[in-house]
Amino acid sequence: MRMTFRWYGEGNDKISLAQIRQIPGVDGIVWSLHDMPAGELWSEERITKEVATIRQAGFHADVVESVNVHEDIKLGLPTRDVYIDNYKETLRRLAKAGVKVVCYNFMPVFDWTRTELYHPLKDGSNALFFEQSRIQNIDPMELIKTLSQNVDVTMPGWEPERLAKLEHTFVQYQGFTSEQLWSNLQYFLEQVIPVCEQYDIKLGIHPDDPAFAIFGLPRIITNLTNIKRLLSLVDSPYNGLSICTGSLGSINNDIPAIIDQCFSRIHFMHVRNVKRFANGDFIETSHRACDGSVDTVKVIKTLHKHGYTGYLRPDHGRHLWGEEEWARPGYGLYDRALGIMYILGVWDSLES
Question: How far apart are CA 123 and CA 104, in angstroms?
Answer without folding.
Answer: 34
